[in-house]
């Protein structure tokens, strides 16, 4: 069976060398606020994990992990999760790059030189449109990618709907009629976009995409205000959000972004303080208070792929759970909260719980926090960096409220968009993506960081 401590009271001071007298003192000072009668009411009736099957495999084995909880939300929405998996599989198929149908010449580049097949086709009066095939289309597809097509186009020499949409997108961006047909004007614009030179394979374009015209340059200075802290939520435009995201990467030591890598960035609100009403704290626990946006890294910069940010929550949807370890020995499980920071998650979903993203390494959550008095707020000794957590996943929650005992959740529709965006962003086919969590003052209750 599991080796967690849910049935074994555990003094708070034994789990870590850093758990000194001061930490214990803070726990004690906190205790009076943990009056049992003040325990929030959000858990019993609505706790989706009350009857969850406890994990029986993958229990931590090394001593360092003993006592940490499998902060995994089990058993919820099993049917809809399965349906979502099937749906995501269909979506993934629809979003996969167009398969290559022929061998690519080893020296092939997105060629817009006069001697290229594309140039010869255009100069010969053969505009390229949907249904066209051959080397000229391959040149076109590579040139579109080199010019920053997103999502990128499969280079297969087949002018299909994705290539057509990429052409239209390129035409719109360059003030041309978006008819999806490549004639002399579009070809010339492609030449200009690619610097008038045939781009070398795997060489970044010399210029990064500029913000859309007439979009005021957002000022991200002052946005990042501290370690994991930001002053506001996401901006209204993609350009603003991209600048905010880049500021967050810099502040978190993640600059420059790795080309081909996906970055999921969440800005969530602080919980109300412990002095807020129980109703206020309940409402927060049952709300999606954050937003997540997904970016891909290209030419050393970020490009937003998700459009409007997804609703999300970085806090548990409940205050108590029998599935959580009892770290302070009061006989009740203490739910984990993760800190703002940088985390790596596997790109592939699966494993325990099904259609979920799992952390690459549970050691990332060594410095999590535990809500030992079950008030939905992390303060005092609860924020000590001696509380480990594990299996903090990213998964689908309920439609109107998070469904988790520590994982990161999104409503079903947002989670589907999130998964799609991650696939679009992971252009390098990497096995993991970067998840950055930042928090900001609560819209109603102000700042309450830990
Ligand atoms: Ca406890
Ligand atoms: Ca608390």
Please state the CA-atom Rg, rounded to the nearest Å.
25 Å
Mean pLDDT: 75
Indicate the structural class: alpha+beta
The end-to-end distance, rounded to whole angstroms, is 34 Å
Query: Hey, roughly how much beta strand do the residues contain?
Result: 5-15%
Helicity, in percent? 10-25%
Element-by-element helix/strand order = HHHHHHHEEHEHEEEEEEEEEHE
Question: Which small compounds were modeled alongside the protein?
Answer: calcium ion
Output the number of helix runs. Answer: 10
Count the E strands: 13
Low-confidence stretches: 1-110, 197-219
Please provide a brief summary of the model.
This protein is an alpha+beta fold. Helices cover 25% and strands 13% of the residues.
């Amino acid at each position: 069976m599991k080796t967690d401590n849910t049935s074994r009271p555990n003094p708070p001071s034994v789990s870590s060398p850093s758990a000194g007298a001061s930490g214990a003192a803070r726990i004690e000072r906190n205790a009076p606020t943990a009056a049992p009668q003040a325990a929030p009411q959000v858990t019993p009736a609505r706790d989706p994990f009350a009857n969850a099957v406890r994990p029986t495999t993958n229990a931590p084995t090394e001593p360092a992990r003993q006592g940490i909880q499998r902060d995994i939300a089990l058993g919820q929405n099993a049917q809809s999760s399965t349906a979502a998996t099937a749906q995501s599989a269909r979506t993934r198929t629809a979003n996969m790059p167009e398969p290559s149908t022929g061998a690519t010449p080893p020296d092939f580049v997105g060629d817009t030189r006069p001697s290229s097949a594309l140039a010869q086709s255009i100069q010969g009066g053969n505009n390229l449109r949907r249904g066209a095939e051959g080397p000229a289309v391959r040149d076109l597809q590579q040139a579109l990618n080199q010019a920053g097509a997103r999502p990128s186009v499969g280079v297969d020499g087949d002018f299909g709907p994705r290539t057509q949409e990429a052409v239209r997108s390129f035409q719109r961006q360059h003030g041309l009629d978006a008819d999806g047909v490549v004639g002399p004007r579009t070809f010339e614009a492609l030449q200009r976009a690619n610097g008038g030179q045939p781009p070398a394979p795997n060489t970044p374009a010399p210029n990064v995409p500029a913000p859309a015209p007439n979009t005021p340059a957002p000022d991200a200075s002052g946005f990042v205000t501290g370690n994991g802290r930001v002053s506001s939520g996401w901006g209204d435009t993609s350009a603003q959000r991209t600048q905010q995201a880049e500021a967050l990467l810099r502040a978190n030591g993640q600059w420059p972004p790795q080309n081909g890598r996906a970055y999921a960035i969440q800005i969530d609100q602080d919980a109300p303080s412990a002095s807020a009403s129980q109703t206020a704290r309940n409402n927060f626990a049952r709300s999606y208070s954050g937003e997540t946006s997904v970016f891909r890294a290209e030419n050393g910069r970020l490009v937003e792929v998700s459009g409007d940010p997804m609703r999300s929550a970085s806090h548990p949807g409940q205050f108590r759970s029998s599935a959580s370890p009892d770290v302070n020995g009061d006989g009740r499980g203490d739910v984990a909260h993760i800190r703002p920071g940088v985390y790596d998650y596997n790109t592939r979903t699966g494993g325990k719980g099904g259609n979920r993203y799992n952390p690459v390494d549970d050691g990332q959550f060594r410095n999590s926090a535990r809500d030992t008095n079950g008030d939905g707020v992390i303060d005092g000794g609860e924020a000590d960096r001696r509380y480990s957590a594990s299996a903090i996943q990213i998964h689908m929650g309920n439609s109107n409220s998070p469904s988790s005992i520590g994982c990161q959740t999104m409503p079903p529709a947002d989670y589907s968009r999130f998964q799609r965006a991650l696939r679009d962003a992971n252009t390098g086919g990497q096995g993991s993506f970067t998840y950055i969590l930042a928090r900001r003052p609560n819209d109603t209750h102000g700042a309450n960081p830990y």
